[in-house]
Amino acid sequence: MIGPDFIIIGAMKSATTTLHEQLARQPGITMSDPKEPGFFSHDEHYRQGWARYERQLRRTPETMLNGESSTYYTKLPTYPETVDRMARDLPDTTRFIYVMRHPVDRLISHYQHEWLRGSAHGDIHQTLRSDRTLVAYSCYSMQLEPYLRTFGPERVLPVFQAALRVRPQAELERICQFIGYPSRPTWLSGSDENVSAERLRRDPRRQFLASLPGFGLVRRVTPPGLERRVRALWQRRDVPTLTAEELEELQEVFNRDLAILGSWLALDLTCERFDELAAAATPDWSAVAPRTAAVP
Q1: Which CATH architecture has domain 6-186+253-280?
Q2: How far apart are CA 8 and CA 211, in angstroms?
Q3: Mean pLDDT over all residues of the chain?
Q4: Which ranges of 48-167 would DSSP assign to H, the alpha helix?
Q5: Which long-range CB contacts under 8 A does 49-52 form with residues at least 24 apart?
Q6: Which pTM was predicted?
Q7: 70 and 7 in contact (C-beta within 8 Å)?
Q8: Where in the chain are the domains?
Q9: Is the dihedral of CA 266, 12, 112, 125 positive or negative?
Q10: Which of 32, 55, 183, 244 is deepest in the core (most CB within 10 A)?
Q11: What are the pLDDT digits (tens) for 40-59?
């Protein structure tokens, strides 16, 4: 069995799609298709066997490094078997990349994603009361702890979305050095469509058009200005907002988790300072052995 050389394990709505596309554009790197195979997380995918997963990895004779991106892999408690399966099936050389966004912003963006897909049946306030997984997925130390314990800090790279935004070339070089890419990568513009796509609401007409043969080719040759006008027809205009009480409760939960993460990275992470520190930091694991993170 030949597994991936590296995996982008999350976090969801933290620019993982952009990073996946940037790596796929580098000569000698092939990325999975689909972007998120979810092989190790989903029971139904895992039961289909390694051969199917290997086909999704899309290795070619020119491949120097091969990777995949599945944000399902850092969605505890939803997918509890993920890390055990990886430890059993992946080679000792596979490396993991974890991208982190401000935890509150990530949660709101995740809610938007579910609402647009039709999976969130209610406003953000109702969803927070009924589904605490949105909170858990933003608890980064809790999601990372099994990886650090099982694979060791040397095989897990922490990345901040804010740093990718302000110095994309330098961060891409750091990521490529981590995965063992022998050449100097180049950050290429034009991979940010996922930022606006998260606001496109679920609509049968748009889904029908997207399913038509040749739709992808039409999109590639459509002038950007026209595409933006068409996209605006399906955009959600409002951004969900939290009440002061909800925000205070979430910040209390996330600050406890960020205190653990910050102790590993030698950073004084809090919700209030997250974006400021994330944009300036080049994070690495400063602690030898992380302590167990608490479940929110």
Answers
A1: 3-Layer(aba) Sandwich (3.40)
A2: 27
A3: 87
A4: 50-57, 82-89, 103-117, 124-130, 133-136, 140-151, 161-166
A5: 50/1, 50/89
A6: 0.84
A7: yes
A8: 6-186+253-280
A9: negative
A10: 32
A11: 999 999 999 999 999 999 99
